[in-house]
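Please go through the protein record below and explain what the tokens say about the fold. Record follows.
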Amino acid sequence: MLTRSFVHVPGVGERRERGLWQRGYTDWNAFLRGHPEGPWRDLIASRLDPERAARDLPRREMWRLATAFSGRVAFLDIETTGLSPGRDGITCVGLSDGERVEALVQGRDLGRLKTVLERFELLVTYNGSCFDLPVLAAAFPEIDFHRFHHIDLRYPLHRLGLKGGLKGVERTLGLARPEEIQGADGYLAVLLWDQHVGGHPRALETLVRYCLEDVVHLIPLLAHAYDRLSAELPLAVAPIGEVGMPSIPFRADGGLVKDLLRRIEGYRGSGTPGG
């Protein structure tokens, strides 16, 4: 889809882009072969570079990058303590390349993040432009996060009427999570870390499982957004289609999750803040 896009060119909005497509310039090669010579052609031709186009796409059109970086895409999610803005505040970074998953944990291997990210060019998150990436950039100043292209799925899914948090979007689309972590959210992840620090033997693995569930569900959500939005265009765009999610080799302690959820409900019922 990237090499069929013109909306990144200054002066080309969605309407003008559709006009180019309807005149037969359905990709960059067709434009270069068929458009008459002149300043307008020269301007557009000067911007038909994949790297430059990827950088200049409007945020609402970043979904078009979904198929442009095969093998170099990282689906990413983080968990935090909810307190410290620095590296100590990040408890887990979960990643997947679409085939395997990996979790980097505070106090264990979180310092490997720069090395792990080196092979990727595109990051896919949910609300990562407001949370995950700013938190990571502040905690890891040695990593140039500006070098990554980024699809924040919150925006294309919002265009499709899928609003709210990640779990709500998943439920709307019928994407299920394991029974052991049903009802878990970011606040429960904070409590799981507290339990781990306090010595609970299953809390860390449960936290990692929760984080990686967030990660792997980004994979079908990206395919859904790409296929739905590309189908709205006056082009024949090959869909991504149905995709699988990689297995997660970590188990959650369902009993611990239920206990913590009951505790959260107790806090909410009494008006007492959790900790």
Notes: The mean pLDDT is 94. The first strand starts at residue 73 and ends at 80. The chain has two domains: 2-57, 67-270. The longest helix spans residues 203-231.
